TrEMBL record:
It catalyses: 2 5-aminolevulinate = porphobilinogen + 2 H2O + H(+). Keywords: Heme biosynthesis, Lyase, Magnesium, Metal-binding, Porphyrin biosynthesis. Homooctamer. This is Delta-aminolevulinic acid dehydratase. 5-aminolevulinate 1 binds at residues 209, 221. The lineage of its organism: Bacteria, Bacillati, Actinomycetota, Actinomycetes, Streptosporangiales. 5-aminolevulinate 2 binds at residues 278, 317. It is an enzyme of class 4 (lyase). One of its GO terms (molecular function) is zinc ion binding. Belongs to the ALAD family. One of its GO terms (biological process) is protoporphyrinogen IX biosynthetic process.
Length: 329
């Protein structure tokens, strides 16, 4: 008897780069990458964010230039976060027609027209002096329904300034419905909503709070963002957002929540986005800086993992860099 050798040899399809490329089940496409960008009021030069090497708070001018470059590189969209010069209890700069994000949206929509998808993060934490995502009751809790009225007004201001998509990230109950009604009431039926539906109370947002200058002055966000221990609850949040009129739904963070991305992808028929957040970015950049991981390979692998879990769209601070790398081969 001759020795029996395997007939099935999965290694046959791994033999060369060409074979591996041919049979790859998951592909990264620049068109599915969304670049989050920060724009700060009242600065003359872009300011680096120390905990996010390579990320800056932009001036209006540097934002226009960087947005242009990202679009040239082929990213699918950009999402704006504003850092206002003045903060107050109700976050009044958030829906001011001359607020920093509205000014940026007007300039970018004039520059870029329909060449890219212009999105605006819709929340109050960057705009309130206390750093919470809504307005407070006298006892210091976030007042859900009073906050909805603020979100409705911000949505209309962002739409009027040229946002194609608004992205509510405050995790108030009923926020998508309130925003949809306000947009429709103001004639913005075509402005879409990308809902941060399953957003966890995550320590991975740490570096973002430097970038957006929005760390809460007291307490944390666990009374409105989800508990990392829960999974089924994400499906409930997603379903509620869809009933209220969300056009796309998001899971956030991405890497530590790939099970949630998969469950959401399997449960809905709308596009699913996942947000690779500041802490995911910072950890890889920090390890790479020390030479502990191969930066380029780890970045791509982290994104492939998120796509493989089921995300159609990925928000990532590497969007422009990766898009450039993918298109230049
Ligand atoms: C809230 C918001 C946050 C992020 C996006 N939108 C911060 C928070 O909820 O505390 C985090 C993004 C990141 O960490 O990259 N407006």
């Amino acid at each position: 008897m001759t020795a029996r050798f395997p007939v099935a040899r999965p290694r046959r399809l791994r033999r060369s780069a060409a074979l591996r490329r041919l049979v790859a089940e998951t592909r990264l496409d620049p068109a599915g990458l969304i670049l989050p960008m920060f724009v700060k009021e009242g600065i003359a030069e872009p300011q680096p964010v120390p905990s996010m090497p390579g990320v800056v708070q932009h001036t209006l001018d540097s934002l226009r230039k960087a947005a242009h470059e990202a679009v040239e590189a082929g990213v699918g969209g950009i999402v704006l976060f504003g850092v206002p010069a003045h903060k107050d209890g109700t976050g009044s700069a958030a829906d001011d027609p001359d607020g920093i994000v509205q000014r940026a949206l007007r300039e970018l929509s004039r520059d870029l027209g329909e060449d890219t998808v212009l999105m605006a993060d819709l929340c109050l934490d960057e705009y309130t002096d206390h750093g919470h995502c809504g307005i407070l009751t006298p006892s210091g809790e976030v007042d859900n329904d009073a906050t909805l009225e603020r979100y409705a007004s911000i949505a209309v201001a962002q739409a009027a300034a040229g946002a194609h998509v608004v992205a509510p990230s405050g995790m108030m109950d009923g926020q998508v419905g309130a925003i949809r009604a306000a947009l429709d009431g103001a004639g913005y039926h075509q402005v879409a909503i990308m809902a941060y539906s399953a957003k966890y109370a995550s320590a991975y947002y740490g570096p973002f709070r430097d970038a957006a200058e929005c760390a809460p002055r007291f307490g944390d966000r666990s009374a409105y963002q989800q508990d990392p221990a829960n999974a089924a609850e994400s499906l409930r949040e997603v379903m509620l957002d869809l009933e209220e009129g969300a056009d796309m739904v998001m899971v956030k963070p991405a890497g530590p929540y790939l099970d949630i991305v998969r469950r959401v992808r399997d449960a809905v028929t709308v596009p699913v986005a996942a947000y690779q957040v500041s802490g995911e970015y910072a950890m890889i950049e920090a390890a790479a800086e020390r030479g502990w991981v191969d930066r380029e390979r780890v970045i791509i692998e982290s994104l492939i993992g998120i796509r493989r879990a089921g995300a159609d769209l990925i928000l990532t601070y590497w969007a422009a860099e990766v898009a450039r790398r993918l298109t230049s081969g």
